[in-house]
Specification:
The complex is a heterodimer of chains A (556) and B (99).
Chain A: H1 6-28, H2 33-42, E1 45-47, E2 52-56, E3 62-63, H3 65-78, E4 82-85, E5 91-93, H4 101-109, E6 127-128, H5 143-153, E7 168-171, E8 185-191, E9 197-203, E10 215-222, H6 226-240, H7 251-258, H8 260-277, H9 281-292, H10 304-312, H11 314-323, E11 324-326, E12 332-337, E13 348-350, H12 351-364, E14 369-371, E15 377-383, H13 387-396, E16 411-412, H14 427-440, H15 443-446, E17 451-454, E18 468-475, E19 478-485, E20 497-498, E21 503-504, H16 505-522, H17 530-537, H18 540-546, H19 548-555
Parallel strand pairs in A: 6-7, 7-8, 16-17, 17-18
Antiparallel strand pairs in A: 1-2, 2-5, 3-14, 4-5, 4-13, 8-9, 9-10, 11-12, 12-15, 14-15, 18-19, 19-20, 19-21
Chain B: E1 8-14, E2 20-23, E3 29-30, H1 42-53, E4 59-68, E5 75-76, H2 79-86
Antiparallel strand pairs in B: 1-2, 1-4, 2-3, 4-5
The chains are: A alpha+beta (556), B alpha+beta (99).
The structure holds iron/sulfur cluster.
GO molecular function, one term (chain A): metal ion binding
Organism (chain A): Boseongicola aestuarii
Domain Nitrite/Sulfite reductase ferredoxin-like (chain A): 52-110, 346-397
């Protein structure tokens, strides 16, 4: 895993020292809020409904046990004993005090972490497939590329004042687990006819007010050209992107207004200039970075113990059915730890839980942890013979919920319980849905289903790409929830369709129940997932289930 | 025709703690909305807003927001403001537990 060089370390320490001075001057009254606000945002510090919020970057979602322990320490020492993992693979602290922030940033720097560029109109934390380096279907680990992009974009002088924020996601698998089509730039690794690995480059995707699925600007980009090509895209956007209207400033609008062909011509022309300036230093750097991501030494061990434990313990078996994925190494599995216990806040982990995860990663997981954009924690490399021990360790930390990919594995943004931009709450809706389906004991029968909830049009909860999306709005001073159906965030990404009028906070959970009831009724068999069924039959039967009164009126 | 003025309070976030505070008739910032000054006259409200904005060394982001009179004192009208008097719904944190 990548460790800070002296240069990285010095850069981060200097930034903390600067910010310490800025906080002091703010507290003394020497800086006004107008002067201070851009400075605090540059360091990931927001002001929310009830308190400040510190957003810490977890580059491409990867961290080691020592870093996870430090996140636990921050939660306990300066917050209320927990942290919130977000859809951008970051962690947020909801209750820090302004005067403590510099100490928190120093503590992060101690383990090679920071909160830089987690806000503002810059290139944000580069996200990656949370199974990177482990997935059986992977062509190559995408994290060296993500790290290269991180180094290139951090403090890049040309890209500190982009028209709007800019998000990049990378996956090394043809199967897209990183929602690359909903990013400003999405990079999906593919092979060309000669079998060489390179990238399909996707541009102009994004959710929010105007959801758009990214478009392929280049079918195949050789790996060696990645940096000049990305720089070409960002620099074309930097000049062409609109600065007159915040809502039209993202690259998705630039692409939509100018057309993909024009953007492609400009990018290719700029790329032609830039590739000559990139004399190869980026490739030397990439080689060094790649050396830091050498896979762990996988071991061989007997699997009888695992099989026997599985046969004897139904709860363990159920957990292995839902929470494991195929690993590239024989005998290994990828473990997804659910941070979605029924009734708990999606993505929230206590300091004790973070420490338990660190311990398990160290003992059984080659010292690696990942944060997924689905707000779960991944132990990417666990030998199956260790799974019983891992499972028991997770159980002891109240982390053994067997629901990955099921109806209660809900993405929910902080919504109006914390976020100052929210128009309604999202957390309580997620809690109620999870508890309801747990009580009905229907979860496993329903099977694969992604519910995603956002507390406002900004769509941090990815509701547009949820099989069932829920958007919280303010309708004449009352919380109101709008449903979208059929969205999907994988390589076949689609934006969900609006189902009809919204529901009140009291009516939304029964509405979801009717919807899922209709699915169980309509599906061909248990192998036909909600999304497949929706694609087969379309909106109409689901609408009928959602709005039975309308149906009755039509029939009358 | 302009809309009739509805009663308001002045609110902001505390500079150090970051939590919600309300401007009282005695020019202080209280953590309890019931202590707030209910502003029923538009000109006075605008005047108080200027005062609040000038208090940038103690509070952040002052704004006027609708409120109604109650026996205990000014109370929120909109659910967002009600949440600000309480704290989040997923944990007993914030003002609902006095912290
Ligand atoms: S979607 Fe809206 S409410 Fe939710 S975190 Fe993003 S900005 Fe806040």
């Amino acid at each position: 895993m990548y460790t800070y060089t002296d240069f990285d370390e010095k850069f981060v320490r200097e930034r903390v020292a600067q910010f310490r001075g800025q906080v002091e001057r703010r507290l003394e009254g020497a800086l006004t809020e107008d002067e201070f606000k851009p400075l605090r945002l540059m360091n990931g510090l927001y002001l929310q409904l009830h308190a400040y919020m510190l957003r810490v970057a977890i580059p491409y979602g990867t961290l080691n046990a020592r870093q996870m322990r430090q996140l636990a320490y921050l939660a306990e020492r300066w917050d209320k004993g927990y942290g919130h993992f977000t859809t951008r693979q970051n962690i947020q602290y909801n209750w820090p005090k302004l005067k403590d922030i510099p100490d928190m940033l120093d503590a992060l720097a101690d383990v090679g972490m920071h909160a830089i560029q987690t806000s503002g109109n810059t290139i944000r934390n580069v996200t990656a497939d949370h199974f990177a380096g482990a997935a059986a279907d992977e062509i190559e680990d995408p994290r060296p590329i993500a790290e290269l992009l991180r180094q290139w974009s951090t403090d890049h002088p040309e890209f500190q004042f982009l028209p709007r924020k800019f998000k990049i996601a990378v996956t090394g698998s043809p199967k897209d687990r990183a929602v690359t089509k909903a990013h400003d730039i999405g990079l999906r690794m593919v092979r060309n006819d000669a079998g060489e690995p390179g990238f399909e480059v996707i541009v102009g995707g994004g959710l929010g007010r105007t959801p758009m699925i990214g478009k392929v600007i280049r079918d195949f980009l050789p790996k060696a050209h990645l940096l000049p090509y990305c720089e070409a895209i960002v620099s074309v956007y930097n000049l062409l992107g609109r600065r007159d209207n915040k809502y039209k400033a993202r690259i998705k609008i630039t692409v939509a207004e100018n057309g993909l062909d024009k953007i492609r011509d400009l990018v290719e022309a700029r790329f032609d200039e830039l590739r000559r300036e990139f004399s190869g230093f980026d490739q030397d750097l990439l080689k060094k970075i790649e050396a830091e991501f050498t896979p762990p030494t996988f071991r061989d061990a007997q699997l009888e113990g695992y099989e026997a434990y599985r046969a004897a313990n139904p709860a363990f078996r159920s957990w292995t059915d839902t929470n494991l994925d195929d690993h590239r190494a024989p005998g290994y599995a990828i473990v997804s730890v659910s941070i979605k216990k029924h009734g708990a806040t999606p993505g929230d982990a206590s300091a004790d839980q973070m420490r338990a995860l660190a311990e398990l990663a160290e003992r059984y997981g080659h010292d690696e942890l990942r944060i997924s954009h689905e707000q779960n924690v991944i132990l990417p490399h666990v030998h199956k013979s260790d799974l019983p021990a891992v499972y028991e360790g997770l159980r002891a930390a109240d982390l053994a919920t067997a629901n990955i990919g099921l109806v209660s594995d809900i993405i929910a943004c902080p919504g109006m319980d914390y976020c100052a931009l929210a128009t309604a709450r999202s957390i309580p809706i997620a809690q109620e849905i999870a508890e309801r389906f747990d009580a009905l004991k229907l979860e496993h029968e329903i099977g694969a289903l992604k519910i995603k909830i956002s507390g406002c049009i900004n769509a941090c909860g990815h509701h547009h790409v949820g099989h069932i999306g829920i958007l919280g709005l303010d309708r004449a001073g009352v919380e109101n929830y709008q449903i979208t159906l059929g969205g999907n965030g994988t390589e076949t990404a689609t934006v969900g369709e609006r189902a009809g009028p919204g529901f009140s906070a009291e009516d939304i959970v029964p509405a979801i129940e009717r919807l899922i009831g209709a699915y169980l009724h309509i599906r061909n068999d248990a192998d036909e997932t909600f999304l497949m069924t929706y694609r087969r039959v379309g909106l109409t039967p689901f609408k009928a289930a959602l709005y039975p009164e309308k149906e009755a009126q039509n029939a009358a | 025709m302009s809309r009739p003025f509805t009663p308001k309070v002045l609110t902001a976030n505390d500079l150090i703690e970051g939590d919600a505070v309300w401007l009282t008739p005695r020019d202080e910032w209280s953590r309890n909305m019931a202590d707030a000054e209910l502003l029923e006259d538009e000109a006075v409200a605008q005047d108080r807003l200027l005062f609040a904005i000038a208090q940038s060394d103690v509070v952040v982001g002052a704004y006027l927001v609708d409120a109604k009179a109650s026996d205990a004192g000014p109370a929120p009208v909109h659910f967002r403001e009600e949440f600000r008097t309480r704290g989040p719904s997923n944990y007993p944190h914030g003002k609902q537990v006095g912290a």
